[in-house]
């Protein structure tokens, strides 16, 4: 491995010139932090809105809830968890949607792919009702359609199953056990900056108190590395089982869409990535014992982090 500091200096220069919205990056290789830098930030304790990285955290929480017996199976029908909602429409597909469909983004919705109007959800008084109302419309079950409202349903379903918000459940069953600082309950303001922007704090919740399932979680670079390390270690932390190995393997295994259970799957063996708007990522490659965590401010059209990941892999002399 090229360990000369000059090579890592070149990575720093590349970030500064080509990835201007990166605020923090940590590279952990063979259980050693080989590179860590912060840009225009208070470093390393600062927390960032990691956007859709939240989805992969929710995947871990669903796995833990299954391990603990709160959720019997991912083949459960979603609507059985929401008996209080009734829709006077002809949509019969809604009742057939399973938890697995939401995890794999294979549930139908009435919007074009990659053009979800989730601001409409955020402007509604009941985000779960809005999301369930659109569920099952627009295409066939099994067609991949990336959906943030679907992951919000998963967060609400987790609450229905456990009696705790995703934030509370994560604090107790995921964050605290791996040394991530407890996320407190912050009072919510439902304007764009507090829901999606620079004023996001803790873990955003909807008007009914459900934690957002698809975005809105604040994590530090250290927190992101710990999540990656937990997954790389197949769910074990300090010799304690946090989430089952079977869930880690199942949720990070590719399907025809290069997607697992709210994780994107890479081209290499056992390579998977949590990704969020602006270029927030937790990259894990198990055979190479490699974790790359990147925290970024959210901007439109950031340069794809895959090029930076490949630069780092080349520096580490990994294929």
TrEMBL record:
GO molecular function, one term: hydrolase activity
Domain Beta-lactamase-related: 25-307
Record keywords: Hydrolase
Keyword Hydrolase part of the UniProt annotation: yes
Database matches in InterPro entries: Beta-lactam-related, Beta-lactam/transpept-like, Diverse_Enzym_Activities
Family matches, as PANTHER family: BETA-LACTAMASE-RELATED (PTHR43283), BETA-LACTAMASE-RELATED DOMAIN-CONTAINING PROTEIN (PTHR43283:SF7)
Protein name as annotated: Serine hydrolase
Annotated organism of origin: Erysipelothrix inopinata
């Amino acid at each position: 491995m090229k360990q000369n500091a000059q090579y890592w200096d070149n990575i720093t220069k590349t970030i500064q010139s080509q990835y201007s919205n990166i605020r923090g990056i940590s590279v952990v290789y063979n259980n050693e932090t080989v590179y860590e830098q912060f840009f225009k930030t208070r470093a390393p304790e600062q927390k960032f809105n990691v956007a859709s990285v939240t989805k992969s955290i929710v995947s871990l929480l669903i796995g833990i809830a299954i391990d603990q017996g709160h959720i019997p199976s991912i083949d459960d029908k979603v609507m059985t968890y929401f008996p209080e909602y009734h829709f006077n429409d002809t949509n019969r597909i809604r009742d057939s949607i399973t938890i697995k469909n939401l995890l794999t983004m294979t549930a139908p919705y009435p919007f074009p792919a990659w053009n979800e109007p989730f601001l409409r959800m955020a402007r509604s008084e009941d985000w779960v009702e809005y999301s369930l109302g659109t569920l099952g419309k627009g295409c066939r079950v099994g067609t991949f359609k990336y959906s943030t409202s679907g992951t919000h349903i998963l967060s609400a379903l987790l609450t229905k199953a456990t009696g705790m918000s995703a934030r509370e459940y994560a604090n107790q069953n995921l964050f605290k056990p791996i040394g991530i600082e407890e996320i407190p309950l912050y009072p919510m303001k439902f304007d764009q900056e507090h829901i999606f922007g620079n004023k996001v704090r803790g873990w955003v919740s909807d008007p009914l108190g459900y934690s957002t399932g698809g975005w809105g979680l604040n994590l530090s670079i250290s927190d992101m590395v710990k999540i990656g390390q937990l997954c790389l270690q197949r769910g074990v932390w300090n010799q304690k089982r946090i989430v089952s190995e079977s869930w880690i393997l199942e949720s990070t295994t590719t399907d025809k869409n290069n997607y697992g259970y709210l994780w994107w799957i890479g081209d290499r063996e056992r390579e998977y990535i949590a990704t969020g708007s602006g270029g927030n990522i937790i990259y894990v490659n198990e055979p190479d014992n490699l974790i790359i965590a990147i925290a970024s401010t959210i901007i439109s059209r950031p340069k794809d982090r895959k090029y930076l990941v490949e630069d780092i892999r080349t520096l580490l002399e990994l294929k």
